[in-house]
Structures are given as structure tokens and as C-alpha cells.
């Protein structure tokens, strides 16, 4: 339902006064529409209204509100998101908070995201933390992301491989090349995409081999990454 609302501008043309009123509606759909309607407004206008529903009874409303804090950025957003990441009882909200911290691209988020990866027991939170660390583009995340490669969850491994590419961790090329023959083609796709951000001889050699991958999306991504390396050289 939230995705439908976000895709339909006709459903989200409300004034700030209407949004404030609709956020008090007993109907969760009305509250979702109100949150989506904040899209054209400034962060300073939107954040006070977003905060009204951070403790909403409906998880979908809370999730959209947390996501919105990563997009509508003010100084208030960072401490709110860190608190949610570290203390919220719902793992989905903690994962949302991790993702939103990545959108903030605030270097202060590095340590909270690392703690979440190491200490949270839910794979979804660990996945979101890995993705967010990539969004921060902080090379200090390399150690955490290399640890994430050892996860039993394929999606966490995917996130770690992609993030290592995002942060430009050339030293990690050998570690991620261990996934070149992985049975999961999505992991192989993330690998070749990451290699396009990691210019070195090993990356080019691996991509030259992986353009022959049996899965067309992996092969195509490898070709694009080779072209990207050509531009970087």
C-alpha cells in the first residue's frame, strides 16, 4: 500500500495544514498518504510532522516515517535514527533506521552502524547496516564488511560485496573474488558490479573471465564494469 501511495502523485497533493490534520486520522491509509504528501516540502517543514507518527500503532506508518527521516534531513534526524537503531523493539524499524542513517551520509553514523552489525541478532538489521556502511563511503567500514562476507545469509553477503565496492576497498578484491563461482547469480552480479569500482589488475582479469558467465545479467554487468574500469584508467 505504501508503494502505491508513493507512486501516485494525485494521492499526495495536500497542504501542510491538511497533512497535519490527516496524520491524526484513525485510518492508517490516511496517515500514509499524509506522510507521502510531505515529499515536496522542505526538511524544516516536514520533520516536525514526521515525528508525530514515529510511535504510530501501525508498523507500516512507522516504517515510512523512519524512511522519511533519512530523506528529509535536519540536525534532529541523526539522534532520532540512532536511538531507533539501538533501542527499538521491532527489528524492522531498527533495519529501517539503519537504512535511513545511510541516506543521511553522516560520518557520525559509522560507529552506530558497526555496533548494529556486530550486536544485533536479526539478519535484516545486519543487512541494512552493511548497505548503509556502503552508502557512507567510509573506508573504515572495510573490516566490518569483510566480516559480513562470512554471514550465513546470502543477502548479507550481497550487501557486503556491494558496499566494499562503494567504499573503494581495493584491498578487499581478493576476498570478494572468492565468490566468483558462487551458485547464487545475484551474488556474482554484485561481485562484478563491485569490481567496476575497484580498479586493479585482479578486477580486470576477473571481469574478463566473468563476461562469459552463464547468467545474462551477470555477463552484462561484467561488460559494463569493464567499460567503467576503462574510463577510470
Automatic annotation (TrEMBL):
Q: Which family does it belong to?
A: Belongs to the CpcE/RpcE/PecE family.
Keywords tagged on the record: Antenna complex, Phycobilisome
Native source species: Synechocystis sp. (strain ATCC 27184 / PCC 6803 / Kazusa)
Q: Which SUPFAM superfamilies match?
A: ARM repeat
Protein name (record): Slr1687 protein
A GO term for molecular function: oxidoreductase activity
Alphabetical list of InterPro entries matching this protein: ARM-like, ARM-type_fold, PBS_lyase_HEAT
Pfam families from the xrefs?
HEAT_2
* GO CC annotations on file: phycobilisome
Question: Which Gene3D superfamilies does the record match to this protein?
Answer: Leucine-rich Repeat Variant
At the top level of its lineage, which domain of life is listed?
Answer: Bacteria
Amino acid at each position: 500500500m505504501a508503494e502505491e501511495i508513493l507512486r501516485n502523485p494525485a494521492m499526495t497533493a495536500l497542504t501542510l495544514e491538511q497533512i497535519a490534520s490527516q496524520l491524526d486520522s484513525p485510518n492508517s491509509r490516511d496517515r500514509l498518504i499524509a506522510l507521502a504528501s510531505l515529499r515536496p516540502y522542505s526538511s524544516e517543514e516536514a520533520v516536525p510532522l514526521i515525528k508525530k507518527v514515529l510511535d504510530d500503532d501501525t508498523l507500516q506508518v512507522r516504517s515510512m516515517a523512519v524512511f522519511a527521516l533519512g530523506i528529509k534531513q535536519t540536525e534532529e534526524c541523526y539522534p532520532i535514527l540512532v536511538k531507533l537503531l539501538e533501542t527499538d523493539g521491532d527489528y524492522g524499524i531498527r533495519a529501517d533506521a539503519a537504512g535511513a542513517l545511510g541516506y543521511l551520509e553522516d560520518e557520525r553514523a559509522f560507529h552506530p552502524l558497526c555496533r548494529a552489525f556486530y550486536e544485533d541478532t536479526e539478519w535484516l538489521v545486519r543487512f541494512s547496516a552493511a548497505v548503509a556502511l556502503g552508502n557512507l563511503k567510509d573506508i573504515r567500514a572495510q573490516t566490518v564488511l569483510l566480516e559480513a562476507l562470512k554471514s550465513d545469509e546470502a543477502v548479507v553477503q550481497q550487501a557486503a560485496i556491494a558496499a566494499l565496492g562503494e567504499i573503494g576497498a581495493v584491498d578487499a578484491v581478493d576476498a570478494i573474488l572468492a565468490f566468483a563461482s558462487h551458485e547464487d547469480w545475484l551474488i556474482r552480479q554484485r561481485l562484478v558490479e563491485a569490481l567496476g569500482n575497484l580498479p586493479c589488475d585482479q578486477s580486470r582479469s576477473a571481469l574478463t573471465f566473468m563476461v562469459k558467465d552463464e547468467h545474462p545479467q551477470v555477463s552484462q554487468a561484467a561488460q559494463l564494469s569493464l567499460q567503467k574500469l576503462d574510463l577510470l584508467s
